[in-house]
Amino acid sequence: MPKKSQPKIDIEAILQERDANLAGWKRALADLDNYKKQVEKEKEMFVQFLKADAIKKLLPIMDNWEAAMKNAPKDDEWAKGITAIKDQLDDFFKKEGLERIECVGKKFDPTCHEAMLEAEDEGEEGMILEEFEPGYRIGERVIKYPKVKVSKKKV
């Protein structure tokens, strides 16, 4: 009986195929990891957007509260209680990253200020002279632009 011949095995080709498959799997795994990171980043951005939107809706109430408290008697117990509540609200907003945009005396920047009025002034042109309504930001994102009066050169 004749001997069956052993099939010729190309070890080098098998190793190359193995390495190619392994590299492909590693790329797929890295792609999946990057995808998960991107989804997580987008989810966080969405949460931040929703949080900023909710805070933005509360800002007019806060501004009205501040305006009303300017006329409240400072010595009354009810006014002290209301002020304490306002302080708690301010602490909450601060923890959420809300910052008031300080602008009086600074150079007007259309990316974070809204000019409502121009007024002639002896000082440098384009400076903010007065704030009509406060502005706020969370991180680098302006969620409410301060409404301001800007200086222009005297004629």
Automatic annotation (TrEMBL):
Record's keyword terms, sorted = Chaperone, Cytoplasm, Stress response
Q: Name one GO cellular component term.
A: cytoplasm
Q: Which gene encodes it?
A: grpE
| Alphabetical list of InterPro entries matching this protein | GrpE, GrpE_CC, GrpE_head
User: What name has this protein been given in UniProt?
Assistant: Protein GrpE
Provide the protein's localization: Cytoplasm
Source species:
candidate division CPR3 bacterium
Q: What superkingdom heads the lineage?
A: Bacteria
Q: What are the BP-aspect GO terms?
A: protein folding
Q: How does it assemble?
A: Homodimer.
